[in-house]
Design a protein that fits this description.
Ribosomal_zn-bd, 0% helix, metal-binding, 44 residues, zinc, globular, mainly beta
Length: 44
């Protein structure tokens, strides 16, 4: 995905950021959220 697809026109985002890294977004995969940088995972 392109970077502009993560942000709204006013510069805000609805995506959740990684609590461990802080600078990457969590990818959403059905039953979990995963950070590709540090491998942090939240199961829902």
């Amino acid at each position: 995905m392109a970077r502009y697809e993560f942000y709204n026109e006013d510069g805000t985002t609805d995506r959740e950021q990684c609590p461990r890294c802080g600078d990457t977004f969590l990818g959403e995969y059905g039953d979990r959220k995963h950070c590709g940088k540090c491998s942090y995972t939240e199961f829902q």
